[in-house]
Design a protein that fits this description.
- It comes from Sulfitobacter porphyrae.
- This is LPS-assembly protein LptD.
- The strands form 2 sheets. The protein has a 17-stranded antiparallel sheet that branches. Strands 1, 2, 3, 4, 5, 6, 7, 8, 9, 10, 11 and 12 form a 12-stranded antiparallel sheet that branches.
- The N and C termini lie far apart (74 Å).
- It is mostly beta strands and 452 residues long.
- The N terminus is likely disordered.
- Among the domains are: 77 residues, no CATH class; 95 residues; 102 residues, no CATH class.
- A hairpin with a 2-residue loop joins strand 3 and strand 4.
Length: 452
């Protein structure tokens, strides 16, 4: 019989019957099978051989032979078997017995691969309702498994592993951690998120940090899922010279997000003192297209960030900004606070508090054509020192108006015209070398024509 005819006969046989039963019992239709060769045995078993494929929803199965018992509705499958469930789950097996929906059954000599990262090899896998996979005598690793049979760098062996596809969790019974084939420690119970889960409460990868000042220390981060839109990570950092608790808090809102990173320390560098730092950022969308952004950077002492490797900054800046950008207008208002960590700088003599604003508008007058641009900038910075000259405080107002026009002639001459003026006004205090008030007006000269 022609292969194309066999394929269509099998599709017709395995879809019409289950659809009729499903309409009567209210169950979903069974799988659809396609193969190169089909024949029916005396006990009413339909056998498909050669390039066999079965489909059920997002599940796709490929095998050498599939036998379908029309009485029991069971599928007996001979491998090699490949079952893919979406993009994140792949099952390889030598043989299997499954129901028509491919949701329940038994697979022998199987491997479960999650998100192309984690491999679970087991003697057999029991599938239950398409949600649970129970693996027996299992070896789990994310290392590459060599074809020559050598053990991977690390693996977790367990008597039983249950994969909950819905909750995206792995549950281990009688687990032991091995490096190569050497057992390191034993865990009677263990729960881990599978690689497809982005966020789950639990321990993260530990790390070891060694410095000349703090010695060798150990960090063990613990991630806490506080909800669908916020989380907290606590990381104890312990060594012979320090006892530190690091933290990171994140939260997403309907119109924005925030994140704070920091640490609290008691160490031998400054006995009896509390050390720490706090960095934070946030962004929120406001009404009428305005955007609010803020940043916080502060530390207990100038050496703390470098001692603990949190940042290489020698100047910290905190700010809050409200801005709006549209096609023909831009507006921004900002407040900054700067703090120097340099030994050669004195914060009282630096402009640590800064106010800054900007407004720009474009107009297209129909009477004269071209483009009219207007801009106003305001700036003020203040030093906390009251000393003359080194405690100078300055405020500045800058304005600019210009008109631009381009004309193209038939002979290819392009003329760009530009005219305008700008002004500046200054207010300077606590500096006897300058007058307190100063202003100027500067005209803008027209641009020459250019041939293009």
């Amino acid at each position: 019989m022609d292969k194309r005819v066999c394929r269509w006969l099998l599709i017709l046989a395995l879809t019409v019957m289950p659809l009729t039963a499903g309409a009567q019992q209210g169950t979903p239709p069974a799988a659809v099978l396609v193969a190169d060769q089909v024949f029916l045995t005396r006990d009413r078993t339909l056998v498909a051989q050669g390039n066999v494929e079965a489909f059920q929803g997002e599940t796709r199965l490929r095998a050498r032979t599939i036998s379908y018992n029309q009485t029991t509705g069971a599928l007996t499958i001979e491998g090699p078997i490949v079952i893919s469930e979406g993009e994140n789950t792949l099952i390889l097996a030598d043989a299997a017995e499954l129901d028509p929906d491919l949701q329940n059954g038994l697979l022998r000599g199987a491997r479960l691969i999650l998100n192309q990262q984690l491999q679970l090899a087991a003697n057999q896998i029991n599938r239950v309702d398409g949600r649970y996979s129970q693996l027996y005598k299992t070896a789990v690793t994310s290392c590459k498994v060599c074809e020559d049979g050598r053990a991977p760098l690390w693996q977790i062996r367990a008597k039983r592993v249950i994969h909950d596809k819905l909750e995206q969790q792995l549950y281990f019974d009688e687990a032991s951690f091995h490096i190569r084939n050497v057992p390191i420690f034993y865990l009677p119970r263990l729960r881990l998120p599978d690689p497809t889960l982005a966020r789950a409460t639990g321990f993260l990868q530990p790390s070891i940090r060694t410095t000349s000042q703090l010695g060798t220390g150990f960090k063990l981060p613990y991630f806490i899922k506080l909800g669908e839109h916020r989380d907290l990570t606590l990381s104890p950092y312990l060594s012979s010279a320090t006892r530190t608790l690091e933290f990171r808090y994140r939260q997403a809102f309907r119109s924005g997000r925030i994140q704070f990173d920091g640490a609290y320390t008691r160490d031998d560098q400054r006995p009896g003192e509390t050390r720490g730092y706090l960095f934070g950022v946030g962004r929120f969308d406001l009404a009428r297209d305005y955007v609010l952004e803020f940043g916080i950077e502060t530390t207990s002492d100038p050496a703390y960030l470098k001692d603990y490797g949190y940042s290489a900054k020698d100047r910290l800046s905190s700010q809050i900004t409200v801005s709006r950008a549209r096609r023909d207008a831009y507006v921004r208002a900002s407040i900054y606070n700067f703090e120097s960590l340099r030994d050669t700088e004195v914060n009282d003599e630096l402009p640590t508090i800064v106010l800054d604003g900007d407004y720009e508008r474009r107009l297209f007058p129909s009477g004269i054509g071209g483009e009219l641009r207007m801009r106003i900038q305001a700036h003020s910075h203040r030093r906390t020192s009251d000393a003359d000259i080194i405690g100078r405080d300055v405020a500045r107002l800058h304005g600019e108006v210009k008109w631009l026009r381009r004309m193209t002639f038939g002979n290819g001459l392009v003329a760009d015209g530009q005219i305008g003026a700008s002004f500046n006004a200054f207010d300077i205090v606590q500096d006897s070398s300058f007058a307190q008030n100063h202003s100027d007006i500067v005209p803008r000269r027209p641009l020459p024509c250019a041939i293009r």
